[in-house]
Structure formats: structure tokens, C-alpha cells
Design goal:
The chain is an alpha/beta fold. It is built from five helices and nine strands, in the order E-E-E-H-E-H-E-H-H-E-E-E-E-H. The protein has one domain: TIM Barrel.
Length: 185
Amino acid sequence: MKIHEITPFSEVNGPGVRTVIHFQGCKFQCPGCFNPTTHSLDGGVSMSLSEIICSIPDTVSDITISGGEPFLQPKALLELTTRLKGLGYTIVVFSGFYMNEIRNLKYGNDILVNIDVLIDGRFDSTAASFLGLHGSDNQTLHFISNKYSHADFVSRDVEILISADGSTQITGFPTASLLANFNNN
């Protein structure tokens, strides 16, 4: 699997304390995308299913899969979601594909069976959202299992992570002004 990065602990990418797995590669190239470094199909690092599973801390029971675009690696995404579900993790997936497009993708329906929530739709900077866990108002939360409800997805926050080498990462759903201040400092 081509992975951009794994964030071991996050409290802003879905309910609870989650590990976030960012897939590498996106063909949509949405203007204003928050994660443009995930777009290159040649970037990221290759990781095995075992390496990804081993990177999830023992204290985490919830997973968010984002991108880039996870459904551009459908076989890998199916293997990952199948293994995660089998291990008892709850799974939220962000995708630029719409639900009807996913249903027509190879392995699309099989992947949907494995996940609890799909947040779908291409980011539209002209409809940027300032409420809930989606980037723009055209995106939809699909509750595939009964493990979550809309009430679990109303908060909107950011985390700024500082690694041991001093590099920083911002994750979650920042406002435009916060992102501008972060990028200018």
C-alpha cells in the first residue's frame, strides 16, 4: 500500500481517540484541498498490511482512513478494512468519490460492508463547511453501521502535532484563518 503517513493518535478525525491512516495519491486535485502533499501518485511510502496494523497503538480502537484518495487503491483498501474489521476496530473513511461511484468501483461494495461511516464527495472550496467533520457542504456522512450517529460528528477541531525532530503537522478541520496563520509561521 502507498501510504502518505500514519497519525497514531488523533481526537479530531472522528469520535474517540483514533489512528489516522492517510493513503497516498489522489486524482481529483480539488482546489483548496487541505492535504495537497498526498496527491502525487508517486509519493508516499510502501507499507505492508502487517506494518500498518503494527503501527496502531494498543490503546486505540477506532480508525480513520483518509488520503489522498483511499479508493484509488481498492484491493489494498479492501484488505486493510477487512483486517481492521476482523480485529474489532470501528472505521471511518473519507473519500472524494461519491457513494454511487464507490458502488461501481471494483471492490467498492465489499469495502463499504467493512466500514462504519463514509464521508463522501469531492472538496468544493466554494461550499467550505465550518460545522461538523466534512470539508465542504456538498459532502455527505453515510452511516453504514449503527455504531455512530450524526451527534458523534458535530464537533470540529484541529490538532497541531510536533514531532521529536521539530516538524509540525496540522490535522482535523481548520478554519481558513487558522490554516493561513499556521502556514505563515
